[in-house]
Amino acid sequence: MAAGGGGCPAGGNDFQWCFSQVKGAIDEDVAEADIISTVEFNYSGDLLATGDKGGRVVIFQREQENKSRPHSRGEYNVYSTFQSHEPEFDYLKSLEIEEKINKIRWLPQQNAAHFLLSTNDKTIKLWKISERDKRAEGYNLKDEDGRLRDPFRITALRVPILKPMDLMVEASPRRIFANAHTYHINSISVNSDHETYLSADDLRINLWHLEITDRSFNIVDIKPANMEELTEVITAAEFHPHQCNVFVYSSSKGTIRLCDMRSSALCDRHSKFFEEPEDPSSRSFFSEIISSISDVKFSHSGRYMMTRDYLSVKVWDLNMESRPVETHQVHEYLRSKLCSLYENDCIFDKFECCWNGSDSAIMTGSYNNFFRMFDRDTRRDVTLEASRESSKPRASLKPRKVCTGGKRRKDEISVDSLDFNKKILHTAWHPVDNVIAVAATNNLYIFQDKIN
Amino acid sequence: MSQKQEEENPAEETGEEKQDTQEKEGILPERAEEAKLKAKYPSLGQKPGGSDFLMKRLQKGDYKSLHWSVLLCADEMQKYFDSGDYNMAKAKMKNKQLPSAGPDKNLVTGDHIPTPQDLPQRKSSLVTSKLAGQSFALVAQAGVQWHDLCLLQPLPPGFKRFSCLSLLSSWDYRHATPRPANFVIFL
Fold this sequence. Notes:
The complex is a heterodimer of chains A (452) and B (187). Chain A has 452 residues and is mainly β. Helices cover 2% and strands 42% of the residues of chain A. A 4-stranded antiparallel beta sheet of chain A has the order 1-32-31-30, with no helix packed on it. Chain B has a two-stranded antiparallel ribbon with strand order 1-3. Chain B has 187 residues and is mainly alpha-helical. The relative contact order of chain B is 0.07. Chain B has helices at 10-24, 29-40, 51-60, 68-72, 83-95, 165-171, and strands at 136-138, 161-163, 183-185. Residues 1-25, 50-65, 97-102 and 134-180 of chain B have low confidence and may be disordered. Classes of the chains: A mainly beta (452), B mainly alpha (187). The interface between A and B is large, with 70 and 67 residues.
């Protein structure tokens, strides 16, 4: 791990990450339903959506910058909250369908309303979030409080007039895309054509049209005729940000396949196959488990993609399938702890990763509420912590360091002291500014930069 | 890396010591971990998605963070008659001692007709997320049960209301015309 040195990556200027806000309760006992399961900025970065295990979505909106306090950037405050999914029970398979929101993806804004897709294991919903700041007054058939007026008492007609009212934000489900997945949905991705989107489960990927809920096209099916021959599953999928015919999907074996929908209707045969060659002599029981890709994200430019496996983050050039162009170690010190991580199931944790707006930096989470940032230009990386202790307004985050053995310095933490229950799986980076949202179990931390 | 100078607890010390000597022999840390795992679970198969793995997870009764090979083999899991049956078995499972070997083939489902008292409380879907702020008041209307978190107060200037009006109309099909409810948030 590179020495901290105080300088933090992401951006040409030398700036520091500072605490901005934290959302959520401080209780020690975390209710299962409050655990945040997804975080996503919208295209402009003004809205930040979070989904939790209880099936609820909370949307925050960035306040307009205050002229009297130019140094404090816009804060995120609650804009809307609603129950997106409810727990269900599949009677045919005797399985509970969790209401946990697996992914939220925003649609590009086309009118005054905002649209997002939220999904649990089986059902995807399109939500419309709209503002109402006017109210009609002076109805003929009903009173102001809604009671119907006696029609025989009405002697004159009037035209209702629109009057301003306190802003109200409404969320309504516009489409429900259900019954298309036998296995658990792990990804959704909106296409650049803004009309279609894909949803991926363990073995299949379906293509939907946003207007049509009773039909979807299956574009990838890797289910073998005989389930005994199954060797890998789909772990994540995403559409290319600009080419509406291209998408990628990652597998549990650490490979990525790029498919072009123009080549055939069913994209079982990939157009490109990305795999890093493995040294067969270093293979172990854990090799396949830790090589499983938990997240794949295209860069904003569309030239690169990033994959996250258990111990590292890899950046791939779409033009080169043979190996990644960059590999960043997230927490290599865990390699000697794989046995205990297997026993406590942590080895199966699915970490996500994200790019910054200019694709110059990448971020991913780790344990002990640590998260890591890698600057691709300066090749520097830093480990930061999301904790209540460093949650003073505009307080700079101090780089953290994990020591692997030997003498432990004063503010270092040893590998054995790491809290594996405090894991940062979900992070998001504002599409333009240096603002990041980090989900630490049931709390949402927002950090911003402070330009010196 | 001298082991004697470390200040770690003895249990880890032996582990690290062993790893250290193995490293000196040229074995990678991953292999050392694999050896540790095989020592603890000798019946563990070569492939991570083997049937031994499956059995271990089924015994735990925890279907959440499983290897994908287990999740896809739904046929080998217990079948339940309905959700009440499932919840009864789940409640019983939590109190049971974890069996050490093999799935319990004698586990009977449906031996007891579930009553509302036996079942765990269905979690209320109308509890607001704590991310949305500590104080959040909802006015009870149209016979729907809400959680009152604080008293209703006049809305300070600059705050937004948000409602789940249309949400109500789509969720709560028991009522024909939902009455407008005012939702107030305090930050």
